[in-house]
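Folds abound. Consider this:
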Amino acid sequence: MKGYISPVPFEELEKIRNDFWSSRIEGNPQIWEILHMICNDNSLTNEDINSYMKESCIVTYKGCINVTYDNKGYLYEIPNYCINDPLEYEEFKEKAPLIKENIEIKVRCFNNEENIKINNYQLIKDLKVNIKNNDGFKKKYILDNMRLFFGGKELLDNKEIWSYNIQNDSVVQMLATPLKIKIGENKNLKLKVLSGITLDNDEEMDKKEHENDEADNLQETFTEQNKLLIKVNK
């Protein structure tokens, strides 16, 4: 098969490959598992591969594993980037900017936007640290597992800011979980809702349980009285 040049870095290529293999729903799942193994296990010899193909009744189109069929006629197409590693990575040809400079990036999450200052030579993981230290975001989101996106690409931790062509006033999209409830650390827990309402677990839960018990008792009394009235009327 012809070689190719990858337009994305190794880490992103691996993610694209994993997304491809995990999203296969057409055809036979077992056939996909075998094809996945053949394409990823470099320890397999040609004899091993031919044996797996024969036992699973997998037939190639013109001797190439990019397109195969099973014995029921299902078609299995595999892109070249899921079979071979690239000859080279195009991104490595990029030239770094001559000037290191401090820039201000707009980080947007849902309807919230905050300005974050950072140097264009710092890493994406440094940008995430700055975001975690931002008071506006800390009060609204769980930031431990945040994901950042720019220009349709997810930003990888070990890449420098400039490598994604992020400049002053660029808008970076953030994916994070909204923070709705905070839980105290002591045993007498308090639930703090963003609206400002504070409930004490011990007192409020006992109060609610008592109210529920009273409602149940009233319902039982009402039911018994109805039964008695029906019996008298008869």
In short: The longest helix spans residues 201-233.
